[in-house]
Design a protein that fits this description.
Elements: E1 14-21, H1 25-36, E2 41-45, H2 53-56, E3 62-63, E4 72-73, H3 74-85, E5 91-94, E6 100-103, E7 109-113, E8 116-125, E9 131-134, E10 150-151, E11 164-168, H4 172-182, E12 191-196, H5 205-216, E13 221-233, E14 236-244, E15 249-253, E16 256-259, E17 263-266, E18 277-278, E19 281-283, E20 296-298, E21 303-304, H6 312-330, H7 345-351
Parallel strand pairs: 1-2, 1-8, 2-5, 8-20, 10-16, 11-12, 11-16, 12-13, 19-21
Antiparallel strand pairs: 3-4, 6-7, 7-8, 9-17, 13-14, 14-15, 18-19
Helix pairs in contact: 1-3, 1-6, 4-5
Length: 360
């Protein structure tokens, strides 16, 4: 996979044919279909890696409705899609959420995502059900400590050495983090406490069994409680006040708080871009999957139209028609012939493959 690309906020925007917002399966296939039509793409995603829901929600669960594939996991599907688009070398911008999308005087679109600024001739919104953002504890007073003592991913073990670590969550991410820290041999935390509102877990059975063994050995403490407030001294977080399942209040000392409660999809800024919406989904023309703004297309779960079905295979169909719709708009007057990948020399050159019957 190509390394992520960034541009300083003061630099001129990067010019490109297309920007694909969302690196889930449909967004990745959109890159492929654009590449077949000689359109190069930059891809933006709020997550740190490609894959979208497939990686975040069912990376290792089976998928049975991908054509010509009896079964594959979400992780396997994403790997195959990434391999498929390698010839088109998209530029990646991970860990960024698009803040603004503005049409320019020349008809192009300025897409800004933090320090990344892209100037595109066409934009494809493949944001699924929205950008995935970490679920946060419902304690507003924790906000000032985000990034210094409160994290939504596990920092390096050395950073947590001798810390009192409190982990919030009940699924694999939280339990895996607690287990890994408890088994750390060189930079072990002073204490590890796992907190959830009840003593039940959604993690894999073998993970829960390992956690329970570490609890029994006294290497991980578990607290059934919900946060109610914080204790701090100036800019330093000292403890988290919690209300236990038994109704009793207590204070949990903490140096580092890991909030590993999964991700939540948010439509986010898409709702502010002036595009026609219906029940928080983008309305599209099914001839080209163009939105109410010419030059902006929407594919996958983020769009709506009569007969819409939220299936990956439907998203692949939408991406194909969107690519052709964009090519017709960007190359007015130029025929856009239907070329079969089996026989087209141009497509073979683009994919870097030998034509059928060529033994070279």
């Amino acid at each position: 996979m190509n390394a992520a690309v960034a541009t300083p906020a003061s630099a001129a925007p990067i010019e490109t044919d297309a920007v694909v917002i969302g690196a889930g399966p449909v967004g990745l296939f959109q890159v492929f279909e654009l590449g077949l039509l000689d359109l190069r793409a930059h891809v933006i995603d709020a997550l740190p890696v490609a894959g979208g829901q497939c990686i975040e929600l069912y990376a290792d669960k089976p998928i049975y409705d991908i054509p010509a594939t009896k079964v594959c996991t979400g992780r396997e599907l994403v790997a195959r899609l990434l391999a498929q688009i390698e010839p088109f070398a998209p530029a990646w911008h991970f860990g960024r959420q698009v803040d603004t999308l503005a049409k320019q005087a020349d008809g192009r679109f300025l897409v800004a995502a933090g320090s990344t600024r892209l100037l595109a001739r066409a934009v494809f919104i493949a944001g699924g059900v929205g950008a995935f953002v970490p679920r946060r504890l419902k304690v507003d007073a924790l906000a000032p400590f985000e990034g210094t003592q409160v994290f939504h991913a596990v920092p390096g073990a050395a950073q947590l050495a001798n810390h009192r670590v409190l982990i919030a969550g009940d699924a694999d991410a939280a339990l895996d983090a607690a287990i890994a820290l408890a088994n750390e041999s060189t930079a072990r935390p002073a204490s590890i406490t796992l907190m959830h509102r009840r003593d039940e877990f959604k993690a894999a059975p073998e993970t829960v069994a390992e956690l329970q063994a570490l609890r029994a050995a006294g290497r991980i403490e578990f607290v059934a409680a919900q946060p109610s407030g914080v204790r701090h001294e100036g800019s330093r977080l000292l403890a988290l006040d919690v209300l236990g399942a038994d109704g009793a209040s207590r204070s949990l000392p903490v140096d580092t708080l890991l909030v590993l409660m999964g991700l939540s999809p948010k439509l986010g800024p898409i709702a502010e871009w002036g595009l026609a919406l219906e029940r928080k989904q983008l309305v599209v023309d099914t001839a080209s999957f163009e939105t109410s703004e010419p030059g902006i297309f929407a594919v996958g779960d983020v769009n709506t139209y009569p007969g819409k079905r939220k299936l990956i295979v439907c998203g692949f169909h939408e991406a194909t028609l969107a690519a052709y719709g964009a090519a017709a708009r960007l190359f007015p007057g130029r025929p856009i012939p239907l070329e079969y990948t089996t026989t087209s020399p141009r497509v073979h050159r683009a994919l870097g493959v030998a034509p059928p019957g060529d033994s070279r």
